[in-house]
Specification:
This protein is of the alpha+beta class. The chain has two domains: 2-231, no CATH class; 249-429, Sandwich (Tumour Suppressor Smad4), CATH 2.60.200. The chain has 15 helices and ten strands. It has helices spanning 2-25, 29-32, 44-73, 87-95, 97-111, 123-130, 151-169, 173-190, 202-210, 222-226, 236-240, 249-276, 282-285, 392-397, 401-408, and strands spanning 290-294, 297-302, 307-310, 317-318, 330-335, 338-342, 349-353, 365-368, 374-378, 381-385. The strands form two sheets. A five-stranded antiparallel beta sheet has the order 2-1-10-9-7. The chain has a five-stranded mixed beta sheet with strand order 4-3-5-6-8, with helices on one face. A hairpin with a 2-residue loop joins strand 9 (374-378) and strand 10. Helix 1 (2-25) runs antiparallel to helix 3 and helix 3 packs parallel to helix 7. The chain is elongated. Bound molecules: zinc ion (2 copies). One zinc ion is lined by residues 109, 113, 132, 135-136, 207. One zinc ion binds next to helix 9.
Length: 446
């Protein structure tokens, strides 16, 4: 057992560790920059987090390998005793591992995203929140993000195809173990984030950016067959909503340009006002990373002069699937002195803040201290800005979610979540009318 564990841990760190170092930390980093699919780079903290969880996932995979060996050794699992027993059969299954393991992955992965069912309970929403959200913390994936999985997901990921096919097809152990190896290496290289010399898996990169599409892999077109395939951000509307007007390219460009113009104008005016108030040093006006969570999961840090939040695909933070969210809901400018939030919609409400010193009135401009966590209600969904709920600072100040909810949001439009974070309400409860363009939208072209 120990040699097997040590072998797998060494392999994980040699493959993932070298590849992430080479692409993200080595002197080649600058040379390879033009080949990065998403020009933004993940913070070092994400690499450390993913490395730790990938190490844990490897322990789960090793557990699966040990279990299979035990089942074969005790005769509980049928197997080809030697490679010579059925060479063509073995060759067939060995050569097609990458194809037959993907349907298992699709099934498991799709099951861990919201099912969007109304007749049966949406267990996928529960699984996403408590299991799969772990994987989506890697908004800008690297090799270590490949198996940055909750232990439940990691175990199922390695176990499902290897055990099922070993049992069904009486595989030689080498083929089933090859499947475990392919699960690991395929995930690591598939998440490296580079067109070259990486795997260039734009398909799965889109899944990490937009969540509810591309659950499988491109070489087995299950997503195409089941209607969950997206080739671009704009395709999301075809999957989860319809709008005749938004799909046209010209309209997309127009809304993108207007969204950018609104964002930049806000940042420009704000900088001018701050300069006239005496904050003229470059460090006073430098953009600082702003951590954003939508519905309590998949928090990510954004570093831009200003950030747009709304239902439209053109927004930097998109709250899609909730018909109550306006195309452009609010703008945020993050500065060293704090986050300045402009509620463009006039409908953004304060749901909770870690320092409940002052009320924030809808339709105004608010300034939040840099270390404070605020939860804003947009439609039936919530967007949190600031440090994570479980960070030491936030926890020290925070009331329990129940207390905060009763005191700050008595109307109870939102649903309670199990974590003291943001998740009030859900996109999945409302009908997905993701891209409906409203004529009163500040970024509407109509
Ligand atoms: Zn992934
Ligand atoms: Zn996913």
């Amino acid at each position: 057992m120990w040699p097997l564990l040590v072998r797998n841990l060494i392999a994980t760190w040699v493959i993932c560790g070298f590849w992430d170092w080479f692409l993200y930390l080595s002197p080649m980093k600058e040379v390879l920059r033009p080949f990065k699919m998403n020009p933004k780079y993940p913070p070092l903290r994400q690499l450390q987090h993913d490395a730790l969880h990938t190490t844990l996932a490897t322990l789960c995979g090793s557990g699966v390998e040990i279990l299979l060996c035990r089942l074969w050794a005790t005769g509980m699992l049928p197997m080809q005793e030697t490679l010579a027993e059925a060479p063509l059969w073995t060759l067939l299954w060995a050569a097609t591992i990458v194809h037959w393991r993907i349907p298992h992955f699709y099934l498991m992965h799709r099951g861990m995203h919201p099912w969007r069912t109304t007749r049966v309970p949406d267990f996928g929403k529960f699984l996403y929140r408590h299991v799969h959200a772990q994987h989506h913390k890697s908004y800008l994936p690297t090799a270590f993000s490949g198996t940055n999985m909750h232990p439940v997901e990691a175990t199922l990921y390695y176990l499902m195809p290897s055990l099922f096919m070993a049992y069904l097809c009486r595989l030689h152990p080498a083929v089933a173990l090859g499947c475990i190896f392919d699960c690991a290496v395929g995930a690591w290289l598939g998440h490296d984030g580079f067109r070259w010399p990486g795997a260039g898996d734009f398909f799965h990169q889109l899944h990490h950016e937009h969540f509810d599409c591309n659950y499988g892999a491109q070489h087995i077109p299950i997503d195409k067959w089941l209607g969950t395939y997206c080739g671009s951000k704009a395709d999301l509307k075809k999957v989860w909503g319809t709008s005749s007007s938004v799909g046209r390219e010209g309209n997309m460009e127009c809304t993108q340009a207007r969204c950018r113009a609104v964002r930049d104008a806000f940042a420009e005016e704000l900088h001018l006002a701050l300069k006239s108030a005496g904050l003229s040093r470059e460090t006073d006006l430098a953009a600082v990373p702003l951590r954003v969570e939508v519905r309590g999961t998949a928090g990510r840090a954004l570093l831009d002069r200003s950030i747009a939040v709304g239902a439209k695909a053109e927004c930097d933070v998109q709250v899609f699937g909730d018909e109550e969210v306006l195309p452009l809901q609010f703008l945020v400018c993050s500065l060293p002195c704090g986050h300045i939030i402009a509620d463009i919609s006039g409908r953004t409400a304060l749901a909770w803040r870690s320092n409940p010193s002052a009320e924030l009135a809808a339709g105004s401009v608010w300034m939040i201290p840099p270390e404070e966590r605020v939860v804003l209600q947009v439609g039936h969904s919530c967007v949190a800005l600031g440090p994570p709920a479980n960070s030491l600072k936030a926890r020290k100040k925070a009331r329990t979610f129940g207390e905060a909810f009763r005191e700050d949001f008595p109307a109870k439009k939102c649903q309670k979540s199990s974590s003291a974070s943001t998740s009030c309400g859900s996109l999945y409860d409302s009908k997905p009318d993701i891209y409906s363009l409203r004529s009163d939208s500040p970024i509407s072209c109509i």
